[in-house]
Amino acid sequence: MPKVTVDGLEIEVPNGYTVLQACEEAGKEIPRFCYHERLSIAGNCRMCLVEVEKMPKPVASCGQPVGEGMVIHTDSEKVREARRGVMEFLLINHPLDCPICDQGGECDLQDEAMGYGRDHTRYDGNKRAVTDKYLGPLVKTVMTRCIHCTRCVRFMAEVAGVPELGAVQRGEHMEITNYVERGLSSELSGNIIDLCPVGALTSKPYAFTARTWELRKTDSIDVFDAVGTNIRIDARGSEVLRVLPRLNDAVNEEWLADKGRFSIDGLKRRRLDRPWLREAGKLRPASWDEALAAIAGRIRGIDGSRIGAIAGNLCDAESMMALKDLMGALGSTNLDCRQDGAVFDVSSREFHRFNTTIEGIDEADALLIVGANPRQEAPVLNARLRRRWVETPGFFAGLVGAPADLTYEHEHLGEGGDALKALLDPEHHFTKRLAAAKRPMLIVGPQAFARPDAKAVLACCWQIALQTGMLIADWHGFNVLHNAAARMGALELGFLPGENGKDIAGMMGGGVDVLWLLGADEFDVSQIGADTFVIYQGHHGDRGAARADVILPGAAYTEKSGTYVNTEGRVQRALRAIFPPGEAREDWAILRAASAALGQALPYDDLDTLRTRMVEANPVFGETGALRRIGHAGGEAPRGDAAAVSDAPFGRAFATYYQTDPISRASPTMAKCIEEIILPRQMAAE
């Protein structure tokens, strides 16, 4: 490890460090525009110049490797003058339109110009103008502001794996463009807005809406997939204006999927803001007392076996705990959280969670995907898989399921169960490659469990993992990738049919007399029995509300404090950013009031007491933010016959990435993505 001296301080740094990293290790701030920790080095902007003794001129520290005995000066007069010159060049053609730029207040160029630039310029010629580029309904461009840092180009090519941006021409005439004028097809395209150090790329839906200092910032969790991406909700008054990612290296690094970022305009549309009652076949507005009295009048006297509850994909753990306790008080064991009909083996946590952990992907050297499309079901996790493929020589992947562009090279082994069963043969070419790998991993998607032979599929995948060395004392390569934010939390709470309880299929067609839907909209509500009394508790007028006899307006994820468990079993907390609209209330509070009306008052009156109850139900809820990574300790295998896997093809999780839940279906921005990105590509393919 070389020793270097930075502004008189001698430090030792790892081999391969750049001068910029060494300076930061010594606590020195180095300005930069093109350099980013998670992107390749470009060396475009030259803003990171430092002075290195025995070198004739200042060097770009981002691309200069450290050497033994280097003496570095980060704030000498030569360095200051060089940075002033670089800033002067960068501003030659910049329009200086800060008053009308959405980047104002959080612009790197503003900050660096103030800290390292001159107070005047020697250039008074005409500034160049660049035509704005069309990048789709999400990203707005003002390319005259572009300083050619190429962060957006490198992100799209390296992280997103969709190289749709690049540069044309040279020197002063260089332009960043998408070559063919069409919307960006990556599910991670919004991250280039965060990466852009100037106002060249900004959020199109957020344009001219607010300044950063007007916003109230709240930490939360993204609920549009099961990754558990850490986000920051920016609100003004009673309205959520934007969502940005928070840094968490163990989960999402600093990326956020487009649906979580841009579908928030759906929070303002089709909202349920008052209770409703169905009378003579029509819904009418009602008071809370009327709605709860109607529920109590219908449920009172009904046997618990004729009452059922279904939890939706966006539910927080608190509301599911309260609903489970209420159903238990009413004598019902008819509970289900699996709207897709998936069948999981819950006898052990390792049979239904992402055991490798998201961070553990960085150690894998082989991958088998079964019945999943991580690019659409978990874009941020897929970016991590791609990074591992890029950085690891010899990394290989295989896919059993519907063909998909995963953004990294993989071998498509087949679409159906026959391809999966073939991997049980130790002489299969892909099985042999998995067995030869040091850290192989397997990812099973939820569609693999939404089949009649789900238990056989699980047993088959487990057997493949066992015989290829994925299950050892210091490595657990078997993973289940969920796509619903509420799914793992529900499984941890046991929100499943109890003894003699009915699953979602059993509750259909008159299987129960009363059905409580907690934000459940992702199943065929037409299958509910005509005489079944339906209570819908949720925040959007979606499929479930259309069938309901009583509607109880709940709170969306931005409007309540809630606990969510991601696909790897990590318990995380979201905070309330705004209050629910109108007469809507937090879901656990609604259930507490309903229990009192039913004469079965739940034993908690505040959130802290409810969370204590959750810890009693499962101790993992007491380990917020933490995750204990485990290897395979042996034990029984999942119950199922691996040989019974049918040859039927594995399905797709959803028809389109942009509309998968009540919020995104209500979002005009997501509808534009369908219209301007999906439909044109489908027409071109035809």
From TrEMBL:
The biological process GO terms on file are: ATP synthesis coupled electron transport
Q: Which cofactor does it need?
A: [2Fe-2S] cluster; [4Fe-4S] cluster
Pfam families per UniProt: Fer2_4, Fer4_NDSU1, Fer4_Nqo3, Molybdopterin, NADH-G_4Fe-4S_3, NADH_dhqG_C
Keywords linked to the UniProt accession: 2Fe-2S, 4Fe-4S, Iron, Iron-sulfur, Metal-binding, NAD, Oxidoreductase, Quinone, Translocase
| Top-tier EC class | translocase
The EC number(s) this enzyme carries: 7.1.1.-
Under catalytic activity, the entry for this protein gives: a quinone + NADH + 5 H(+)(in) = a quinol + NAD(+) + 4 H(+)(out)
Keyword Chaperone set for record = no
Matching entries from SUPFAM superfamilies are given as: 2Fe-2S ferredoxin-like (SSF54292), 4Fe-4S ferredoxins (SSF54862), Formate dehydrogenase/DMSO reductase, domains 1-3 (SSF53706)
Q: Which SMART domains does this chain map to?
A: NADH-G_4Fe-4S_3
Q: Does the keyword Ribosomal protein apply?
A: no
Q: What is the documented function of this protein?
A: NDH-1 shuttles electrons from NADH, via FMN and iron-sulfur (Fe-S) centers, to quinones in the respiratory chain. Couples the redox reaction to proton translocation (for every two electrons transferred, four hydrogen ions are translocated across the cytoplasmic membrane), and thus conserves the redox energy in a proton gradient.
UniProt record similarity statement:
Belongs to the complex I 75 kDa subunit family.
- What is the designated name of this protein? NADH-quinone oxidoreductase
Q: Which organism is it from?
A: Acidiphilium multivorum (strain DSM 11245 / JCM 8867 / NBRC 100883 / AIU 301)
Its encoding gene is what?
Answer: nuoG
